[in-house]
Write a structure and sequence with these properties.
Elements lengths: L13 H47 L4 H11 L8 E8 L1 E2 L2 E2 L3 E2 L16 E11 L4 H6 L7 E11 L2
Antiparallel strand pairs: 1-4, 1-5, 2-3, 5-6
Length: 160
C-alpha cells in the first residue's frame, strides 16, 4: 500500500527513534549497572571465601592467631581492610559429640595456636561491600536506600 503524500505534510519518522530510545534507555542503564554491580559483588565474595580458606589452612597447621589474621587480611588485599572482619574458633570431638565453639588462642609460649590436633577450626569472614552504583542497585534487589551489603564466608578445617 502506497502512502500518499498530502501537500505540505511530511511523513518523516525521525523523531520516533528518539522517543523509543528515551523510553528504553533507563531499562538498559539499570541492566548495565546491575551487571557491573553483580560483578563487583561476585569478586568480593570470592575474595572473602579465599581469605577464609587461607586463614583456616594457616590455623590448621598450627600457626599463631596473629599469623592467621595476617594471612586473612593479606589474602583479601583487594578489599577495604576496615570493612573486613573475621573470627577464628575451634571445637573438639569427644564421647560421640562435638563441643561448643571456642575462640582460638595461642599457647603460653606463643609458638602455635591452642587448638588440639584433630579439632575443627572455623574461620568466618564478613565484608561490608559498598554499592558502586549507589542506591540504584539497592532498589533492583529490593533494598531501597541501602548503600552496602554484608557478605559472609566460612571455612572449616581439621587441625593437623
Amino acid at each position: 500500500m502506497d502512502v500518499k503524500m498530502i501537500p505540505g505534510r511530511k511523513t518523516d519518522r525521525q523523531g520516533t527513534a528518539s522517543v523509543e530510545f528515551a523510553l528504553v534507555l533507563p531499562l538498559l542503564l539499570a541492566l548495565l549497572f546491575g551487571i557491573i554491580e553483580f560483578g563487583f559483588l561476585f569478586k568480593d565474595q570470592l575474595s572473602i571465601q579465599q581469605a577464609a580458606r587461607e586463614g583456616a589452612r594457616t590455623a590448621a597447621v598450627g600457626r599463631t592467631v596473629s599469623e592467621v589474621g595476617s594471612r586473612i587480611t593479606t589474602t583479601a588485599s583487594t578489599l577495604t581492610t576496615a570493612s573486613l572482619t573475621y573470627d577464628i574458633m575451634y571445637r573438639t570431638y569427644s564421647a560421640g559429640a562435638w563441643s561448643g565453639w571456642t575462640t582460638l588462642g595461642d599457647l603460653a609460649d606463643g609458638s602455635q595456636n591452642d587448638a588440639p590436633v584433630g579439632a575443627q577450626i572455623r574461620v568466618r569472614t564478613n565484608y561490608v561491600h559498598p554499592f558502586a552504583t549507589g542506591s540504584l542497585f539497592a532498589r533492583l534487589i529490593g533494598r531501597p536506600g541501602a548503600t552496602s551489603m554484608t557478605l559472609h564466608a566460612e571455612m572449616v578445617m581439621r587441625r593437623e
